[in-house]
Amino acid sequence: MDAGEASEAVLATLDQLHGALGTHQIPFILFLDQDLSPTDESRFKKVSDVIIRNSPLAKDRLLDELELFLFKVESQPVVPKANVVMAEKALKGKKILLVDDDMRNVFSLSTLLEEYEMDTITAGDGRESLEVLQNNPDTDLILMDVMMPEMDGYEAIQHIRANPQFQELPIIALTAKAMQGDREKSIQAGASDYISKPVDTKQLLSLLRVWLSRG
Fold it and tell me: Would residue 117 be called left, alpha or beta, if left means φ above 0 and alpha means ψ between -120 and 50 degrees?
């Protein structure tokens, strides 16, 4: 379902569908062609399972979500959680550079990444991230907070892209939910994609699957 226009109409339709389905659990995937206000985004998250924003890889993300849903359906008779983790085997062993000055975010995201057997390295600001990346050139993807002291994420991304070695390295910007202009600023700086904080774990895993499968 495309929720890019007529938000109230789409919300009303979703409410009607949820009511008609009753106890039947069918996932709802929303495709957005524009940013939502924090209030609208919160409302849409209550009635949908996945929100996909328009980007060069939006179609890949949509296919990825559909494949994951079909895998879950086929695997339901056998320990669901174990099967879902098996579906994430593409993430196993990938090295992720997590850049954030908030230790609470570092802890929660590192815990999630390690649950899927990814190797996590960290940096507390943009300047440190450049040093860590130089020492770990085999990094597969960067999660970059955009608001940090010393050197913010925007500047750090620009420095990374200036190095030919890392021009194709996937970088996902972690942006503030209330700042709708952060997406455009992140992409202009050289980010591959973005996700709003607080991070939705399902959306993050979807982004990781898409970007880590490109290579």
Answer: left
pLDDT tens per residue, range 172-205: 999 876 566 777 888 899 999 999 888 988 889 9
Q: Which of 183, 121, 110 is nearest to 153 (CA)?
A: 183
Question: Which long-range CB contacts under 8 A does 135-139 form with residues at least 24 apart?
Answer: 136/95, 136/97, 137/165, 138/95, 139/95, 139/96, 139/97, 139/169
- The CATH number given to 87-212 is 3.40.50.2300
How do the domains of the chain map onto residue ranges? 7-84, 87-212
Say how far apart CA 164 and CA 147 lie, in whole Å: 25
Sorted by sequence, the CB contacts under 8 Å of residue 87 that are 6+ apart come out as 68, 71, 72, 75
Q: How far apart are CA 171 and CA 180, in angstroms?
A: 19
Q: What is the pLDDT of residue 78?
A: 44
